[in-house]
Amino acid sequence: MSGKIRFAPSPTGYLHEGHLLSALYVWAAAKKWNLKIHLRIEDHDQSRARPAYIEGIREDLAWLGFKHDSESIQSARNDVYKVALQKLEEKSLVYPCYCSRKQLLADNPQSETGEIVYQGKCLHEPHSLPLPHNLRFIVPNKVIDWHDLRLGDFHENPKLQCGDFPIRDRDNQWTYQFAVCVDDIDENITHIVRGEDIRNSTARQIALMEALGRTDRPIYLHHPLIVDENNKKLSKRELAHSLRQDKEAGITPEMLFGRVCFKAHLTQNNAPLSLEEAVALVANTLPPL
Hints:
Largest sheet: 3 strands, parallel
Radius of gyration: 20 Å
Strand order of the largest sheet: 1-2-3
Number of helices: 10
Number of strands: 10
CATH architecture of the domain at 4-91 and 175-283: 3-Layer(aba) Sandwich
CATH superfamily of the domain at 4-91 and 175-283: HUPs
Oligomer: single chain
CATH topology of the domain at 4-91 and 175-283: Rossmann fold
CATH class of the domain at 4-91 and 175-283: Alpha Beta
Order of helices and strands: EHEHEHEHEEEHEHEHEHHH
Mean pLDDT: 94
Distance between the termini: 8 Å
């Protein structure tokens, strides 16, 4: 098999152990399934992205020994996103939403995970009001059947999961959901391996990609996460310890690979591992295609 997979960190902080585990899964999948690796810097959130973090991603990956075949950065792709938005506008699949955060919480139910399920209040409102607004994608009211190579089959209706969701925010920034779908189409991503915390986004992303004209779906695998002592996933918002701090403290890449593989229950101890050994361990957990 041939195709392309992507590793797509956001430069809103330095890489941490969760990113390292995800990278191991991506590089292992590329090795096992004979895929090209694309590095995508997902800096769509310009309010939080920092140049130092962008360079930090590149520097940390090089230090760890991860090599990729191509690279892109979302902040340089505005024209691509504009063309994609025009496609949706021509199909009358977007509309402005003037609801504040307070209104969204008051007027809409929430899912089991605490996500707002937007009920379409602004769908039939006048669309030319000179007020701050985001743009929402009209989600089709249908069940999306899709398969995860690790977790199995899912049958989900994104209209019930989240409702019509934003593709551009009130500050005219492209949202994660929109940018990632446009990128996956434009960059010919055939396989998506990412953390299981993003699994709930899959059905809505499939719906958006289909609206944008994609007919062949990516192959999906959502990998397990490393969690802290409170069973919470590692997060830059929660100030997770960075790999850069480890490097400055004299920790070697081999020590990090051993520690992360142990925390991910891939080994019985945290003995140092080479990159090749760590990738091979993860590859052994992946199914054939």
